[in-house]
Specification:
192 residues; elongated; 9 helices
Length: 192
C-alpha cells in the first residue's frame, strides 16, 4: 500500500489543508482558501469531529473575510452541529461564539443573545460551565447588554466572566474584558 493511500496520510493532508486555508485567507487568496477548506472537509473522516470542525472554522473565516455573511451563517450553523457532536469544550464554546458573532454581523443582536444563552445551557448540561472557553461567553453577553444600555446586566455578566477568568487562571481573556469594564464604568459616569 502506498503511503498516499493510507488513512493517516489522507488525514494529515486534510489537516495541512486546513492550516493552508487559514494562511491563504490571511494572504487574501480567498479562492484558494475556500478550495483548501472545502477539500479538507471532503477528505476528513466524519468521525474526526474536532478536525472536521477546524476545517469548517477555516471556511467560516474566509467567508467572514470575503463578506459572504449568508454563507458564513450556514457554515457557522454546521460548525456548531459538528462541535456539539465532538463534545470538546473549547470547540463547542468557539462554535457558539462564532455563530453569535455572525448574528451580530447581521445586526441580529437578539439572535446572538439567544445563541450565547444556548451556549451557557449546553455548558451546564455537559458539566463544562466552569471551563475557560465559556467565560468569554459571559463577557460577550455583557457586551450585548452594554450595547442595549442595560448597564446593570452588563456589569453582572462581565463580573461573572471576569471571576471565572480569575478562578481558571485564564488571564489572557482579561485583555478583552478590561476595556469593556472601562466602557461600562464610563457609561455610568465613573471617569476614574
Amino acid at each position: 500500500e502506498f503511503l498516499e493511500d493510507s488513512p493517516e496520510y489522507q488525514s494529515l493532508t486534510a489537516e495541512t489543508n486546513v492550516l493552508r486555508s487559514l494562511v491563504a485567507t490571511h494572504k487574501r487568496a480567498y479562492s484558494q482558501a475556500i478550495q483548501l477548506a472545502e477539500s479538507a472537509i471532503q477528505a476528513i473522516s466524519k468521525d474526526e469531529l474536532i478536525t472536521l470542525a477546524a476545517a469548517y472554522f477555516a471556511l467560516s473565516f474566509v467567508c467572514q473575510e470575503m463578506g459572504e455573511i449568508d454563507r458564513l451563517l450556514q457554515v457557522s450553523i454546521e460548525t456548531l452541529s459538528i462541535a456539539q457532536r465532538s463534545g470538546n469544550s473549547s470547540v463547542c464554546a468557539n462554535a457558539f461564539r462564532y455563530l453569535a458573532y455572525t448574528y451580530k454581523m447581521q445586526g441580529r443582536l437578539h439572535a446572538a443573545f439567544e445563541t450565547y444563552q444556548q451556549a451557557l445551557e449546553y455548558a451546564r448540561e455537559h458539566e463544562q460551565a466552569s471551563d475557560p472557553p465559556y467565560n468569554i461567553i459571559y463577557n460577550s453577553i455583557a457586551e450585548l447588554f452594554y450595547e442595549w444600555n442595560d448597564l446593570a446586566n452588563a456589569e453582572q455578566y462581565l463580573s461573572k466572566g471576569m471571576k471565572m477568568i480569575e478562578e481558571a487562571g485564564f488571564f489572557v481573556n482579561l485583555l478583552w474584558a478590561g476595556p469593556l469594564s472601562a466602557k461600562i464604568k464610563r457609561a455610568r459616569g465613573d471617569l476614574q
